[in-house]
Amino acid sequence: MDHDAVAPARLTPERLTPQRTDPPLAGDEAQTLLGFLDYHRRTLLLKVDGLDADALRRTLPPSTLTLGGLLKHLAMVEDNWFSHVWLDEQLEPWASAPWDVDHDWELTSAAQDSPEELRALWDAAVARSQRTVEAALAAGGLDQAARRRQRHSGQAISLRWILVHMIEEYARHNGHADLLRESVDGVTGE
Fold this sequence. Notes:
Blueprint: H1 29-48, H2 53-57, H3 67-87, H4 105-109, H5 115-139, E1 145-149, E2 156-158, H6 159-185
Antiparallel strand pairs: 1-2
Helix pairs in contact: 1-6, 3-5, 3-6
């Protein structure tokens, strides 16, 4: 593919995403985990940065995954782990979503959302997550257990486990986002 010949599908010529910061090289455990999580969050934003609605809805067949779907999915994942599991709170739009009709509702419904709505949903979920983690760390650190217990085992999950899982979740989906973004407008790299 001749990447120079592909016109980017952008909302504005300016970047919408602040620069990424590398995780600390010598931080404590919490600083390191949060540094990697923030790095991966910003990587996702770089992959959706400036794209219009059509570009966020574009698939790379045979997959039906889209960049907009990934953004909404990761907003849901943020709220699931840090609000639902950690705090045992239900939030909208997830609490009333038709999960029994569409198990992948957050992925499929993103096609009806504007880029601004998707970004606002993700931004709000991340801001809630950051406040939750900050309060949890101040109250006792990474060994604390979530309020909500696992369905099958009855065990509580530690904050450490949730942070590691969130890094894994973003890293996995950033690989998908790399391929999707390249298929949209040829943009590659970090």
